[in-house]
Write a structure and sequence with these properties.
The chain is mainly α. The protein folds into two domains: 8-69, Orthogonal Bundle (Arc Repressor Mutant, subunit A), CATH 1.10.10; 92-127. 64% of the residues lie in helices and 6% in strands. The chain contains six helices and two strands. The protein has helices spanning 8-19, 25-36, 40-53, 73-89, 93-102, 108-123; strands spanning 56-59, 66-69. It has a two-stranded antiparallel ribbon.
Length: 127
């Protein structure tokens, strides 16, 4: 699969489509207006970019155009994670976790979840 990265705005649209699809342009505008204040033309341009990236498809067989996600969150997340780590932490997961710990950003539940993930990775020979 070709490397696909999304802008922050494109992520907002994809999250909406992943949570419930399809949506018309008007529905997307209404769902995001309180959070973003974006206009219909702005969202239309972002949808066109998402279609061009192969992340979204448009069905115009009905009265209104409907937008559907093509890619799942699971398909996009690894690329985005790698891109984020490279940009912000020079690719270092340790630096990222150190930053979170240093800011007291991790709850006890977060720490327990991380331990479980690491234990599972170690057990499955992925560490």
């Amino acid at each position: 699969m070709e490397r696909i990265t999304l802008s922050d705005g494109e992520w907002k649209i994809m999250k909406l489509l992943w949570s419930s699809a399809p949506h018309t342009l008007g529905e997307i505008v209404k769902a995001l207006e309180g959070e973003t204040g974006w206009t219909k033309p702005t969202i239309f341009v972002m949808l066109k970019r998402l279609i061009g990236k192969g992340a979204v498809r448009m069905d115009d067989s009905g009265k209104l155009q409907q937008y559907y996600p093509i890619l799942t969150r699971r398909e996009i997340t690894p690329e985005e994670t790698d891109s984020f780590l490279a940009r912000v932490y020079d690719g270092s997961v340790g630096m990222m976790l150190s930053s979170l710990v240093g800011r007291n950003s991790l709850s006890k539940e977060d720490i327990a979840e991380l331990r479980q993930i690491l234990d599972d990775a170690e057990q499955n020979g992925k560490g």
